[in-house]
Amino acid sequence: EVQLVQSGAEVKKSGESLKISCKASGYSFTTYWIGWVRQMPGKGLEWMGIIYPGDSDTRYSPSFQGQVTISADKSITTAYLRWNSLKASDTAMYYCARGAVAGTFSVFDIWGQGTMVTVSS
Amino acid sequence: EIVLTQSPGTLSLSPGERATLSCRASQSVRSNYLGWYQQKPGQAPRLLIYGASSRATGIPDRFSGSGSGTDFTLTISRLEPEDFAVYYCQQYGSSPWTFGQGTKVEIK
To answer: Which residue on chain A is closest to B50 by alpha carbon?
Structure first.
């Protein structure tokens, strides 16, 4: 079964660092793009960026460039989203999702269950 | 960046009725790379439509997508109780990929 399993909910303070994970299984991890999507409380979906684990090619939305770092570890088929210094406005649900077609940009067909990040000031 | 504008914001309908959701892009979507997702409370989004009009695996045929260029539509032919949810369009033809703000389909 193809699935993405995300790490658990986090509660942090402003200024702290954080790295959340997305463990992939059931498919060839290195040949499908994986993206990250933010959903602030009661709001819509925002595309943050994507990574191609095969060569670590990474693209960011301008809104998130410099604010987060997306990475992947092929050896353990896991993608990551990292913050160096959290802000209260980073409080949101974060989803990882897989591109539907190997090797090319496409819609997201498989989604993780989401990781809730709460940042207190 | 392509901005996607969905309308209406909320659609109040009864089970069995037809739902028509609109997604308009600020510029032409390359190769009609436009998808639709459904999201229910407390759940991750689910892919419904890709390439503007192709149904994803396992999606009932009451869901259909149409359109090209800058104007796209998601139609639910006869609403079932489980279809009441929020729907998002997304373009993946140009980086950064972007989502619309969503249309909520609620029970009238």
So the answer is: A107
